[in-house]
Amino acid sequence: MPEYRKSILVDEAPIVVATDYSYDLPVDPLSHLVITLNFLNSMAMTKATVANILSCLPKISIVFRGAHIYDLSGADLFVASTILLGRQTHQENVVDTLNAIRSFSLILPFGRKLYDPKECFMATKRGELSLKISTAPSFPNIASARLLVQTVELPGAAPANYLKLYTITRPVVATGEADIDLPRGNILLGNLLFSSVIPTGTVDTCTADRVSLLLSNERKYYTEARWESLKGELVELLPPVDAFAEKFHRENVAPVYTQNADTITEEQDMSDIARYAFMNYGLGPVAGYEIDTKPLSEIKIRVTSTATGLLRVCPIEIVKAA
Fold it and tell me: Is the pTM of this model over 0.70?
């Protein structure tokens, strides 16, 4: 009879700023990890937002025999797992009370579906597979941070594939056209894009204004696409948009009357994916169009920038299990 096993790897261990942590993972095949940050609000009337929480974990890695299987920031993992699984990450006790007990979980999947014995991480030997987490120099609006990690194993599974996600960071120092080379050898499902500058207010500029995909020097799949179109398609892969907010309104108690003053603004999950877009080759409605990069001579993303800034590309790949 098929079985799964949930175990606690890290049990609410206190974590501090600017520190690297490493944990050996179980040897049985792994479906996914649940990485939870438990903490307290450090200020009254100022809750830690999703952006605050994710900024605490700038680097989350899975390392197998010295090679990275995952290498993402917490923010990138939040968006990537939402795309892969079609589910939002849940916040607990979303209030702005001082010392309110809060928690936020990230799912790190090794397959496109959870609990899939055909696509998960394969069995390993003790010490071969590890989780590494680096914390940020500060934890904004957060106190008493504690880490909880749960593993989900699939004993006896013999997977054919597993997922690999990593980050390519490219500072854009001049506007215009530039190419980003991608590695070859695996099946490519998509590229998550992060653009530090996007159209906002009255300024219509973008670090990733236009993109194209070049396979062996030919434009394929995306001969040219604009940021707004990519973002529109990304939203179609996500669950219905709702608020992460506490759903209450605060009285405006300013001593002087202010016309049309706003109450506290609700935190929308859209704000946390605002700087992300997705080039999709094999997820959801385009499943079956995956790109086998092994026979290609090269693979590039051509980006036209109308603003300088930071660009990140996070390829999502399928790797054949050994």
Answer: yes
